[in-house]
Each structure stands twice: as structure tokens, then as C-alpha cells.
Amino acid sequence: MQTLKTGILKALRTVYDPDLKKDLVSLGMIDDLLITNATISFTIILTTPACPLQEFMKQACIQAIRKEIKKELEIIITTIAKVTSSRPPAAILPEVKNIIAIASGKGGVGKSTVATYVALSLANHGARVGLLDADIFGPSIPTIWNCEREKPAVFKQNGKNFIIPLERHNVKLLSIGFVANSQEAIVWRGPMASAALKQLIQDAYWGVLDYLLIDLPPGTSDIHLTLVQTVTVTGAVVVTTPQKIALIDAIKAIAMFKKEQIQVPILGLVENMSYYFSNKEKIGTPHYIFGKEGGKKLAEQQTIPFLGQIPLLPIICEQGDVGISSNKTIAPFDTIAQILAQQIAVRNAIYQPTEIVKKSY
Length: 361
Ligand SMILES: Nc1ncnc2c1ncn2[C@@H]1O[C@H](COP(=O)(O)OP(=O)(O)O)[C@@H](O)[C@H]1O
Ligand SMILES: [Mg+2]
Description:
This protein is an alpha/beta fold. The chain has two domains: 2-81, GMP Synthetase, Chain A, domain 3; 99-350, 3-Layer(aba) Sandwich (Rossmann fold), CATH 3.40.50. It is 35% helix and 22% strand. The protein has helices at residues 2-12, 54-68, 111-124, 141-144, 176-179, 182-185, 190-202, 222-230, 244-258, 294-301, 314-322, 331-350; strands spanning 16-17, 22-23, 30-35, 39-46, 74-81, 99-103, 129-133, 154-157, 160-163, 166-168, 171-175, 211-215, 235-240, 266-272, 276-277, 286-287, 306-310. The chain has an eight-stranded mixed sheet, sandwiched between helices. Helix 1 crosses helix 2, helix 3 crosses helix 12 and helix 7 (190-202) runs parallel beside helix 8. The mean pLDDT is 93. The site of magnesium ion has 5 residues, from helix 3. This is Iron-sulfur cluster carrier protein.
């Protein structure tokens, strides 16, 4: 059997992960290779359960083995995912593999919406997901997730109180709206808001998470600085609408993350409210009311990955108002979630870990 095994491994060495640009054997992605008289079986260890290349890689493995091995054996491939991390051992949130900031320059462009549906998609793929609402002055996660009147439980460990995030549709949720009177929170001064965010980060018991999404307020505020000074952020996603006024602000947000003292990699840009379909006309004709592909072009100019476009859809607005009632995601968000998960894996493989931003900054 040894020669057969050697042949199979040789074949698998010709299969490359298109993102990481190395072969599956060198990347340690092949496990449990077993050969019987009738079958060849093995597991591909993916870097994310939301990997959009799963089927492609399986087929590439089958083709490579068929080319190398003449014996007609059934090939059984299983996939599992071990989400990678590039977060250095940290005192705060050590069990969270990836922290993803969802940002924009302008308000109302769809950060909370994108954070919500991407979280749902990742969880639907089997990832362990948390969503932290860092919009201290205007938390919208409690409304979108239909848990405005809920209070998270608290437990005590070693004399310290921990907040247990709420859980909806397999996503763990935490918002200032759950723990403070929102009318009070909006009149807080900057330092109080920063302290509140810090407390939400430090005092929450998330458990092991593959992805913690942070829904940020608009702009480039104290809250953003507090975040990068408190935890190592894996990367940021910038959300924009296609019109000039939003793009100008998106550029500012990108510049903030790229700043020498901050250096949080940009994982990609999402263009929201890209177009709409008029009911009166033939379905399928998009109307680019805010201009065409402004976000896509910005991603190209800034050489950052473009994660995708989301049309204006009545269902998004309705669910934003009354709250989501199931784990159903919406098609463009699922594609965006998969491309984002892919970009996180690429980031973890290629770039240095992000460092905590020094307090003096
Ligand atoms: N693609 C879309 N189609 C329809 N409504 C949308 C879309 N994206 C966002 N909205 C709505 O626009 C409003 C602002 O979105 P939100 O996600 O709260 O923005 P932000 O968090 O950036 O302030 C919400 O009412 C939301 O439901
Ligand atoms: Mg928001």
C-alpha cells in the first residue's frame, strides 16, 4: 500500500489552494488518508467552514488522483474546518480567533445590516460567531436582532462579574443597549463611551469564537481608537454606498486603519445600496440611483479586496425595523460572508499579527 499512498500524496501535491498559493500537502490540509481495497478516503482541513472553494478543491483532488493512480478506487473526501488565527496570545479575548471591525466613514450606510447578515451567514456555515455592538451612542443591534428588552445574564468567577452575551440564531450578541439605559448612553461624553466599550469587551464571556464581528459607529472616533488600543483586531471591513459623499468618508476610514500607528489590515470593502429594482418595470433591470459601482472602483483604487454589492431590498429595511425572525440570510450577504472568510484566512497566512495600538497615541 505504501506506493499507492506515495502516489496519492504526489497527486495531492499538485493541487494548490488558489488563495494561499501552496499545495494542499505542504499546507498540512490533508489528514486521515486511508486506503482500502476499494476506496481512498481522506479529509481536507479547510481554513473556514464558509470556504467558497470547497467543491472546487474536492474536484481538483479527485482529478489529480485519477490522473496519477490508474487503479479504479472510489475516492471519498470529507471536509472539516479549523478556522485560523493570527491573533498573538492576548490577555483580552484570548479565545477569540478573529476580531473583525465593521466600519464606515458615514452613518446609515449599512454597517449594522452587513454585520448582522454576515454573522448569520458565517453561523449558518457552522462557524462560532459573536457580534459586538460598539455603536455606544446609537446601538441598533438590539432592534435588528429583536431583543430590545432582553438583559444578559451575569456570572461571577474569581470575584469578577462576567456578562454572558445573548444568543440568537447561533450568534452571540452583546450591545450597550442590553446593559445601559440607551437614553442615558447618548448623552455620555467621549471618555465614558470609551470606558463603556472597554468594559463590554473586557467583561464579556464569549467562550471560543471563530469570528467576533464588531459593529462600529460611523466616522473615526474615540471608540475606534479604544477598540484598537484594547484588543488586537484581525482586520477591518469598510461599508459604503456608491455616492461620492459616502466614498469620501470611506476613504477617511480606510486611511485610519492604514495609519502607521494603527495598521489594521483592510479585509475588504462592501458596496451597499448599489441599485434597486423597480416593481413597475421588468424584473431584473437595476437602477443605479446613487451612481454605478462607486464602491467597486474605490476598492480598485485603494487596492483592497472588493467583497461585493448589495442592492436596495425592501426585505432588508423591513427586517431592520421589526427585527429578524429566523436565521435566513439574504443571498448577496452570504457571498460576501464567504469571500470575507476567505480573506481572513489569507490575511492570517500572509500578514504579521496586528499589534495593540499604544496608549500614548
Ligand atoms: N441594502 C439595503 N436595502 C434596504 N434597506 C437597507 C439596506 N441596507 C441598509 N438598509 C436600511 O438602512 C438603514 C441604515 O442601515 P444600518 O445598517 O443601520 O446603517 P449603519 O449601521 O451604517 O448606520 C436601516 O434602516 C437599514 O434597515
Ligand atoms: Mg449601525
